[in-house]
Specification:
Length: 153
């Protein structure tokens, strides 16, 4: 049992995301920035969107990837911190006690004996479409509609 639990949620409607061929594309509609996560980073994001705890995400990663528990834990913590700093996720902490859920992970591990190579997940940030993505599609476009901005903007 741990004393503090965390609930992760996507910062919607400000943030939208989509998984495309193993890559998560995330758009911060307010800032106009978009992001990319692949491999382990995409798996961590998927876990966060499903409300899986940090501990359970780490256990799943330790079972799936060939790396030390310390390295995986540090990588997950770093990625979660970056996602929070970019305002892509919101972390809500509660004082509830929750049991660690590791029973399902152990059965999956036995079936998969070969581990994947672990690469530290990186959050790729792109700002080249910032003005276009941050454009209000109703009030800031000309008569042609989005993505054509009014000339006085």
């Amino acid at each position: 049992m741990i004393k503090t639990s965390e609930n992760f949620r996507i910062n919607s409607p400000k943030v939208v995301h989509e998984m495309i061929d193993g890559e998560v594309v995330i758009v911060n509609l307010e800032r106009g920035d978009y992001y990319s996560l692949v491999k382990a980073g995409a798996e961590i994001w998927e876990g966060l969107t499903k409300g899986i705890s940090r501990v359970d995400i780490m256990e799943n990663m330790v079972q799936r990837y060939d790396a030390s528990r310390e390295n995986i834990e540090t990588a997950i913590d770093d990625l979660i911190e970056k996602l929070e700093l970019e305002e892509l996720i919101i972390i809500e902490k509660t004082d509830e006690s929750i049991p660690l859920n590791t029973t399902n992970n152990q059965s999956e591990t036995k079936a998969n004996t070969e581990k994947l190579s672990f690469e530290i997940p990186t959050l790729q940030k792109y700002t080249d479409m910032e003005e276009l993505l941050a454009l209000d599609p109703i009030h800031e476009v000309d008569e042609m509609g989005w993505p054509n901005a009014k000339q006085d903007l």
